[in-house]
Amino acid sequence: MTVDPKLIKELREITGAGILECKKALEESGGDIEKAKQYLRERGVAIAAKKMTRQAREGIIEAYIHTGSKVGAMVELNCETDFVARTDLFRNLAHDIAMQVVAFNPLYIKPEDIPPEVIEAKKAEILSEYKGSGKSPEELEKIVEKRLEEYYREVCLLRQPFLKDENSTVEEVITQAIAKLGENVVVRRFVRFELGEPLE
After folding, report:
1. Domains recognised in the chain with CATH numbers
2. What is the pTM of this model?
3. Which of 47, 48, 49, 81 could form a disulfide with 178 if both were Cys (CB 3.0 to 4.6 A apart)?
């Protein structure tokens, strides 16, 4: 089918995808913008998944100090090439993640970074709330699993709702950036400072 160039332009403005990608998405979806957006999303996630295994050794360290200079954060965001590290998209992403760290105060990057003893203590705490409830081991297991997922959303940066779009997680926003940039993007580390907080 022939795709109206206006539709291609509109889809490109909405998604940031390339002209050829937008044209193909509209062809595949019969000119339906919503279906084309879904096609690009699915394709972007698939492309990003392939790139996530690649080494990311370049990047930047970005700092954000909140108004009033009482709280701030530094983030190391890695990519594969210095070229991508200099792009506005990458730099803006690093800045947004530093803001995220200040606003949401994560303790870890991802669930796998949480020490096993912390997870075990959390499980024990959850189970103690249901002591004597008469729930079966299967029911308790589901409750623990659900509550742990909630805990991860609180303390793990990648699982948190994104500061600028609470319908997406930080991980999903990074995945979208990987699809657009064509390179793997990894949060390597972060640190958050709050004035007067006790030193460990």
Report:
1. 5-51 (1.10.8.10), 58-109+156-194 (3.30.479.20), 115-147 (no CATH)
2. 0.71
3. 48
